Amino acid sequence: MSDHPFDPGLQPERTRLAWQRTAISIAVGALVYARIEAGVLGLASWACAVIGAVAGIGIGYWSKQRYRYTHRCLNTGRVALPDGLLPLVVAVVVFAAGLLAVVAALLRATGDNPPI
């Protein structure tokens, strides 16, 4: 297998970098949001931050594996490219983060304290 890029425009490499930025954004965003909402959600915000950071690290690792698989497929002429599971996982993580933000906003608006 060749280590040279398949595409002279480096599209797979640019996609890999975009996935890296997404993973870093998820991990750092979870930590920053937990710091901001610690007063409202309490300890639950830090638990969610750890989950978000682990999700970001996992997405980063998974995207690296996905790139290697795509690179191998393109250089060997195979047609089987990666499935859409990684984008689905990212969508679910972002949706869950959005739900958490809504819950925190509602708790802040009502003045209720979370059970944790």
UniProtKB/TrEMBL annotation:
Q: Which domain of life is it from?
A: Bacteria
List where the protein spans the membrane.
42-63, 84-107
All residue ranges annotated as the DUF202 domain in the record:
7-72
Q: Which Gene Ontology terms of cellular component type are present?
A: endomembrane system
| Subcellular localization | Endomembrane system
Q: Which Pfam families match?
A: DUF202 (PF02656)
UniProt topology in membrane: Multi-pass membrane protein
Ordered alphabetically, the record's keywords are: Membrane, Transmembrane, Transmembrane helix
Predominant localisation class? membrane
Name of protein? DUF202 domain-containing protein
Query: From which source organism is this entry?
Result: Tessaracoccus flavescens
